[in-house]
Design brief:
Blueprint (H helix, E strand, L loop, with lengths): L8 H13 L6 H8 L3 H13 L1 H50 L1
Helix pairs in contact: 1-3, 2-3
Length: 103
């Protein structure tokens, strides 16, 4: 199992943005030295960012939409559960009442 990165996703994104902002005037080594990271690490971050720019945004939107749908479903189910509990309580009390009447 791979160990978690000691760099946050935000730091990696900012590092990639910084390297891209140099427009080729600075090397990976120069930017990495400024950030105190290994140049190959920075190169990997840039390569990964180039591989998934659009798909990551689309996946994020899909995830947000799914999350909103699931939250609404959870709220609906929680409300229904409260109603069912009230119905069960009423039926339990009615059964106890009629059981006493029968004796």
């Amino acid at each position: 199992m791979a160990r978690p990165s000691k760099y946050s996703a935000e730091f990696r994104s900012d590092a990639v943005t910084l390297w891209r902002a140099s427009d080729g005037r600075r090397t990976f080594r120069d930017v990495a030295a400024d950030l105190s990271v290994n140049p190959e690490t920075l190169r990997t971050w840039v390569r990964d960012a180039d591989d998934r720019p659009a798909s990551a945004a689309a996946a994020s939107q899909d995830t947000e939409a799914e999350l909103a749908r699931l939250r609404a479903e959870n709220a609906r189910l929680a409300k229904a559960e409260k109603e069912w509990q009230m119905e069960r309580e009423i039926l339990r009390r009615a059964a106890a009442y009629f059981a006493r009447e029968m004796k």
